[in-house]
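ok so for the tutorial part 2 we go from a plain amino acid sequence to predicted structure tokens. step 1 is just haveing the sequence, like this:
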Amino acid sequence: MRRSNSIIWGIVLIAVSLVLLLNAFEIANINLFFDGWWTFFIIIPCFAGLFNSSDRGSNLIGLVIGILLFLACRDIFAFDILWKLFVPAIIALMGIKMIYKGTFARRNANGFPVLEGNGNCGTSTFAAFSGRGLNYNNEVFQGAELTAIFGGIKCDLRNAIIENDVVINTCSLFGGIDILVADDVNVKVDSNSLFGGVDMKKHQNRYDNAHTIYLNSTCIFGGVDIK
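step 2 — the prediction. this is what the tokens look like for a chain of 227 residues:
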């Protein structure tokens, strides 16, 4: 993955240097800062991610967003139309991705287990345009599915009883999820993010911890904070 990204960005830098040389010797007059030039910082990484990322869905969404923004900057269509279509399109794509992931994906590319259903495997919490609080004080925790869309979820596991390794699947779309964990568990993260991500700076793993929380996270204009 890193090798492919390096090749793509290397080609981009060489192309930029050639343009600068052509301009310097007055062979050409190419304006690098044309309307919408900044959208290529979205388009190029997402395009590269289609070939070397385990989560092509998020990169495809990012690529579509980048292309639409570029077209709007070039006055091919109006920005107001873009914003009217933007939120519904992102929500729809996110829904398709969640259906695919829940139906077909048993394990991700890193071998992380994926929570299958609710039942005895965990609980499901959904927050849309609202906030939800979960507190597993002295309760056995067996995993969870947390989804925040234009909302927030706070899941407190500091006093939870964790008897085995558990899985937490999160999806944050224009929302935030806080997960509070005890010091005696490790947290391993697999994050597929677009304009968001997982922050685990406040929690430190230790080699002698008995159990692990596996976090499968998808963040689009949102984030997950492990505390």
